[in-house]
Amino acid sequence: MQHYSPAVERVLDHMSEVRGGKLDLSWMNSNPGGWGVRATPRDERGLGLEDLNQVGIYGEVPDHGGEHGSMAPRGAEVPADTPALGCYDINDKSLVWADNVALLYDEAVARQWSSARDVPWDKLKPLPDDLEKAMCQLCTGLTEVEFIAGDMPAKWMWHINHDFHEVKCFLATQIADEARHLEVFRKRALANGGGLLKASPGSEQLLRAIIEAPDYTTASSLMHILAEGFVLTLFRNGEMLALSEVEKKIFRLCMQDEARHVAYGTMHLKYFLEKHPERAEDIHEILRHGEEAIFGLSMEPQTSEPRAILAGGGVDHIFEGMAKLGYLYTKQVREYLHRLKVAGLDRSSRLAIPLELPS
Amino acid sequence: MLFPSVEWFQALCNAANANPERFRRLGTVDLVLVAKIDYPHQSRLFEIVFSGYHCAGVREVSSTRAAREGAVILEGPFEAWKEMVANIKANGQADLAHTLNTLTLYDTPMRVWAESQLDTDLFYRYQQNLQEFFDSASHFETEFAGPEATSVYN
Lengths: 359, 154
Ligand SMILES: [Fe+2]
Ligand SMILES: [Fe+2]
Fold this sequence. Notes:
The complex is a heterodimer. The radius of gyration of chain A is 25 Å and the shape is elongated. By secondary structure, chain A is an all-alpha fold. In chain A, helix 3 (101-110) packs parallel to helix 6 (165-190) and helix 7 runs antiparallel to helix 10 (280-296). Helices cover 57% and strands 0% of the residues of chain A. By secondary structure, chain B is α/β, with parallel strands linked by helices. Chain B is built from 6 helices and 7 strands. Chain B has helices spanning 6-18, 20-26, 78-91, 100-105, 117-125, 127-135; strands at 2-3, 29-38, 43-52, 54-61, 72-77, 111-113, 143-144. Chain B is globular. The chains are: A mainly alpha, B alpha/beta. Bound molecules: fe (ii) ion (2 copies). Residues 149, 177-178, 228, 258, 261 of chain A line the site of one fe (ii) ion (FE2).
């Protein structure tokens, strides 16, 4: 006869008691306050995560997450002997929440796309060397930076109390989005006779600042508002500069995702500053650091020159391209300042970089 | 179909709603867009409401202030609108130089704005849907009209 460990033996004993008719069924009477709810879809889009927050206790998001430290679902009865996982140390709602986060999750799920299926790769055509190289260099840079917005949420997600599952679900969609951004730019670089060109040490400075930010909200301000806000404008620019329908579609679809990430970051900072106005100086300080790092990128030829070549329409028109990018830079900075204003942070007089580039 | 008119924008709405699978694939949109067509001495404004997978309605409004809260304004001179719509008709969809993003990026010939930057950002967040929405103008004939034609505010 086979011998099992005491733990397995206990389960086998229990199973034989159940077979003998000794049932427990106490779980059927648990959590009476959470019973009898009927979540309904708000409209034809189907039952969303946000819809679940409209029913009874399930919509009550606590200011301080459960002390039990487990993955027990918010709204369930949690047995007293539930062990803590020992990893949740972001327990205050204000440190991660945004009032639009469940809606953004629902939207993200509904708006996923595929770089294999939704980009008309067969429309790529051979391009003059300077334009193909500029596009490939731009894609090299984007392939390099995109997944910071996957790595940064991944660094913090497992610290976030499980009662704020909406935030975790949204960040999971962001990670999926960034995976797609990484691969779609890699695909474009490798799909038209070119290839990857030169990596960017300057970008790494900014990425490092994001990954080393001391807490989630400073990391989020730096990434969701500053970096992704700037990338959003870069994608708008990319859509305009597109050399074919392929790039047009890539940049447009990425732009949509990026706007969602920026919307979360802006509304998170707003929520955070409403609860912790005394932390505004910390945010100013990290943003100052980030602004300087992002501005420093324009010193790097592999970052700035391909954009100017694409904007001008060729290496012979690179200075016209630079003038166009100057206009966009100002727009980028203004939009960034406006988003911060929505979040309750006025940085207009403290901006660490010029509002306009010297002509 | 006369451009601009409620009927013209309603035709775009009908095209979107008649093809739910296409818009289901693109994903949900929650947005109030005001198309503002500027003439030398006046403007015509059409408010288009998107909700979930549907275009929920079109109406003409007298000013941007009369539009719903959070509206995103897409504005430009009549000639720019005319060129965009004609381009869509000629190509079956906007060509590389006539997409909504391209026309608005440098704030000329068209411009997009809202009271709050987060609302302006919705224009970027739903760009593919909006492009396909306007691209469906390729399905019908458009005649172009001056400011006085069909306006309920004349
Ligand atoms: Fe991205
Ligand atoms: Fe992003």
